[in-house]
Amino acid sequence: MDAADVPGSSVLMDSPRTIVGVRAAELAAEVVTGAAGTTAPRVLVTAGSGFALRSWSAPLLAALGSFPLHTVVQSGLPTPESVALLAHQVRAHRADVVVTIGGGSVMDAGKAAAALSVTSDPTPESVVRMCREGAGAQGVPPIIALPTTPGTGAEATPFATIWHRDRGRKLSLRGSALLPATAVLDPDLLVGLPAPHLVSCLLDTLAQGLEGAWSIRADERSEWLGATALALLADLLDRPHDNLDATQRHAALLAGHLAGRAIAIAGTTVCHAMSYSLTLRHGLSHGHACGVTLAAVLRYNALVDDDCTDPRGALRVRGAIDKAVQATGLDGVETLARKIEGLARSPALPPVPDIRRDATRIATEALAYDRAGNNPRRVDVAALTRLLARTAERDYAR
Ligand SMILES: [Fe+2]
């Protein structure tokens, strides 16, 4: 893909520097020294709990073996406590560069810990404060991101999600320091990814691609990025989701990255806003939680008219949705919505709990997140409750 293909901007040449389709181990040392600006950088690697079991982990660590290296395994969703602990480890190692290898949670933890590591005594309270006040860039070690799942796009965004379970709420950390200096997209890092993770990530990509296109903050670039992500995923929607071949892994990884870039521009909307309660209260993985309402929200937003919240008007919104649908090669909104529903009900995913009795609370909590205001068609508690109920009825009225 050529940056010149992107309308109005050389968006693929913007930060992060993105390297696509290479073997990460072959470039790791060069990428690390380039980002750190020194020939012997101190490197902190943070990776997911399955890291040691993956066939590519040993060569990747060996490639970095000539540097002072400290590896930290990060499991579970990032919390104020886990981010503060990781920030202490970044400080203790005096890391010149932080390398995050994993899915969205691992990358978000590494990004947040790097930003917090400039604080003399990182604490869970300082994480919460930084989420409120924003992250400064001064002195933050550069971040290199190597995604091992194809969907969150965390390697392309200047924000991280922190889960504050005590308060039953998701926190957002934002700041330019969180944007990785380099993203390495190596499709081989997806080898061995379990089908439930893959399907969840594909749903996250679909949600981020569509939301990045229809958001009231969308522009020509994010519409293109979102539509291109959907085009890359079109052939993956109906097939079994294990043992992707090299071409399919490449397409899925690139789609996730482009959709991540789309939301870095446009933000997400009500699918993501509703997802946080579905994750915190009902245990759905992030992508599953976003994908479960996506078909209903797609149908709802496609009918935007006088209730449009985008000052550019309903035609802009319907045009962006049409472009995204056309990119998939499908014949209309309803066909795409049915494909999305099929993926969200994949046997690879756990069954969705019956959320009908909790729909009003989920809707109310969703509207408290700023991103709900990015939705291009007006929503209120009643509208979101109806969308959630409609989603659940399709699952439970069968
Ligand atoms: Fe997401």
From TrEMBL:
Q: Kindly list the organism's lineage.
A: Bacteria, Bacillati, Actinomycetota, Actinomycetes, Mycobacteriales
Specify the Fe-containing alcohol dehydrogenase-like C-terminal domain's residue ranges.
202-389
Q: Which GO terms describe its molecular function?
A: alcohol dehydrogenase (NAD+) activity; metal ion binding
InterPro entries linked: ADH_Fe/GldA, ADH_Fe_C, Alcohol_dehydrogenase_Fe
Keyword flag Oxidoreductase: yes
- Name listed for the protein in its UniProt record: Alcohol dehydrogenase/alcohol dehydrogenase/phosphonoacetaldehyde reductase
Q: Does the keyword field hold RNA-binding?
A: no
Alphabetized, the UniProt keywords read: Oxidoreductase
Q: Where is the Alcohol dehydrogenase iron-type/glycerol dehydrogenase GldA domain?
A: 19-187
